[in-house]
Amino acid sequence: DLETYDQIFMETERLGEQKKFLKENIIVKILFFNERPVAIELPTTVDLKVIETDPGVKGDTATGGSKPAKLETGAVVQVPLFINEGDIVRIDTRTGEYVERV
C-alpha cells in the first residue's frame, strides 16, 4: 500500500505466469474480493536484467534471429542476438515478449 506502506501477502499460485515478471519495488494493482487479495495487475512493461544468455557474435543485427535469455526473476524470454548478459531489457508483461534494450 503506497499510503500506509503495509505489505500485502498473496499465495504465489494465484499469480500464475505473472510471477515471473515480479521483482522488488515494482508497483502493481491488487484486486480484492471480500477484503482478500485475489489477483494482481502488472505494469504493461517491466525492465529486467539479463543474467544468462549465449554471447553475441560480431555482425549480429537488430533484425537478425533470436536466442533465449534468463532474466533476474528466472523468466526465460527470446531476445535479439545482440543482447548480452548484464543488459537491461524491457519485457511486455501481457505477452512475455522482448520490447527493447534499455
Automatic annotation (TrEMBL):
GO molecular function: translation elongation factor activity
Family annotation (Pfam families): EFP, Elong-fact-P_C
Record's GO cellular component terms: cytosol
Ranges where the Translation elongation factor P/YeiP central domain occurs: 1-38
Alphabetical UniProt keywords: Elongation factor, Protein biosynthesis
Residue ranges annotated for the Elongation factor P C-terminal domain, each copy included: 46-101
CDD domains to which the protein is assigned, alphabetical: S1_EF-P_repeat_2
Domain of life per record: Bacteria
Record GO biological process: peptide biosynthetic process
Family statement: Belongs to the elongation factor P family.
Protein name, per record: Elongation factor P
Organism, as annotated: Desulfofervidus auxilii
Taxonomic placement: Bacteria, Pseudomonadati, Thermodesulfobacteriota, Candidatus Desulfofervidia, Candidatus Desulfofervidales
